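Review session, final week

We close the course with one last complete record, chosen because it touches almost every idea we covered. It is histidine kinase, a protein from Syntrophobacter fumaroxidans with 339 residues. Go through it on your own first, then we will talk.
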Amino acid sequence: MALNSNKTRIALISLVVLAITVAHSFGIRSRGGYLHHLYHACFFLPLMLAGFWFGLKGALATSLSITLLNLPEVITHFEKFSPIEFDYMLQMGIYNVVAVCLGMLRDRERREQKRALEAGRLAAIGKAISCVAHDMKTPLIAIGGFGQLLMKHFETGDPRLEKLEIIVKETRRLEMMVREMLDFSRPLELHRSEEDMCLLVRESLEVVNEAATAKRVIVFSTPANPPRISVDPLRIKQVLINLMINAVEASPEGEIVTVATYKQGRNLVIDVSDKGDGIPDGKAEEIFSPFYTTKKDGTGLGLTIARKIVEAHEGRLELLQNSGKGLIVRVILPIGRRS
């Protein structure tokens, strides 16, 4: 019997539960004897198997099945609330409590194993990326620098100048990709200071304004007066610029991208809202995966790095569906953190 098959495991658990129930119902005539307690203890075997194999859902399904299978015997023999009836009810309650505890522990263990595997995978990817990025960085700087020097030797309108401009432009794009890869592979080092978040938002808007104008998208920041907050200004601007550019690229022409900054409890919240197509169901977590991208010239590291920066600030990055259309990317930062 192949125990690695879920169907086989379910059949085995069901068979054990039914066998114990039948043996208990027809093999014992006296309630409260030693064998009675022995059979009740045997029900913990399928409970443990279900919890180990299927987690909380499997353990609860098994405990409820055991409870339902034993319920007719309780009802049939129930005349008055005696110690035996109390023992039956207590035992069924214990089954469900044990199922919840086992299932939750197993689910938590699986999550921790998954996180450990993911961390190991990302560490290996980061190490490989770091080596590649370092090897690419120096020749790209040389190509870009020599390209700019050559451009000075040609007059405006020269076809060779246009080709050099393409070389310099593409070199800058590759340099940006290399910076993203290095940001992903390196541990973050924050240089905190007390900052006015509205000022950081305005400075980020100025950087994004050119891309928004080219696509005829309006980027609008709602007025606010939030408290000053301890952050690394360069890193937070990197997050905001990335989110704003994503919102501009996702929005159709003529739409509005809104950036709202406000205080919520002990947190400072920044919402970047677009009017794009949003994200498909089940893809919310996937878009934070390294190298996941829908862009032709993207690295798929922008949101991964943005979340890494926000989490380094002890905050979190959330995705919410915009009312009606589009997506809201929410940055939540704690206010109480000191420089």
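Two points worth writing down before the exam:
The helical segments are 6-26, 34-42, 44-77, 83-151, 159-185, 197-214, 233-250, 302-312.
The first helix runs from residue 6 to 26.
Good luck, everyone.
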